[in-house]
Amino acid sequence: MLHKDIFEELMNEEELAKTVAAMAEKINADYAGRELIVVGVLKGGVIFLADLFRQLTLDNCQLDFMAASSYGNNAVSSGVVNITKDITCNVIGRDVLIVEDILDTGNTLSCLKNHLLEKGAASVKICTLFDKPSRRKKPIKADYTGRVIEDLFIVGYGLDYSEHYRNLPYVGVLKSEIYS
Ligand code: IMP
Ligand code: MG
Questions:
Q1: Nearest-CA residue for atom 11 of ligand 1
Q2: pTM for this structure?
Q3: Is 131 in the pocket of ligand 1 (CB under 6 A)?
Q4: Closest protein CA for atom 9 of ligand 1
Q5: 3-class SS string, the chain
Q6: From ligand 1's centre to the CA of 63, what distance in Å?
Q7: Is 3 exposed, middle or buried, given 0-12, 13-18 or 19+ CB atoms closer than 10 A?
Q8: pLDDT by position in tens, the chain (length 180)
Q9: pLDDT tens, 138-154?
Q10: Ligand (nearest to CA of 161)
């Protein structure tokens, strides 16, 4: 049964697993024989990352984390992004893959990508489970996308609204009365 605040299910556990497996397969092919630093974006990206990372078959694959906040705790991003946790490994001359839950305005990921390039990464690619291209404010594209969605507010499988619903095993559309 769906959580009472969920309007409808967008992806169930089986669909999520299939999507993640297909994304891992592409990443494995693209980075075969190379070294990769996977950077998870806290907190929303961690559930997706945990499932994805275990399917990477690369011999030389490291894990690190970053966190960013755009002010406020609501459904609308303010546009001002703060890096609240930086990576600890050295990215100079290395290939980096950022793993995030959702690409919305693009403010967060363009900030994180620029930051890693400024630190000297040889390449920085983006892997996002969801993409809402109609909301984009920065000219940024994902290299690996699970699913493109309309302008809906979704939660579950790591995605939150005010820190709630991250534990739902599926992804659902939040009832609009919850955030309006
Ligand atoms: P951006 O900086 O506007 O691209 O926003 C990215 C961040 O906004 C994501 O990491 C999410 O934390 C949050 N976000 C954007 N859309 C949604 C959504 O539909 N559900 C949950 N979080 C979202
Ligand atoms: Mg988030």
A1: 102
A2: 0.95
A3: no
A4: 102
A5: CCCCCEEEEEECHHHHHHHHHHHHHHHHHHCCCCEEEEEEEECCCHHHHHHHHCCCCCCEEEEEEEEEEECCCCCCCCCCEEEEECCCCCCCCCEEEEEEEEECCCHHHHHHHHHHHHCCCCEEEEEEEEECHHHCCCCCCCCEEEEECCCCCEEECCECECCECCCCCCEEEECHHHHC
A6: 22
A7: middle
A8: 899 999 999 999 999 999 999 999 999 999 999 999 999 999 999 999 999 999 999 999 999 999 998 765 555 556 789 999 999 999 999 999 999 999 999 999 999 999 999 999 999 999 999 999 999 999 999 999 999 999 999 999 999 999 999 999 999 999 999 998
A9: 999 999 999 999 999 99
A10: 1
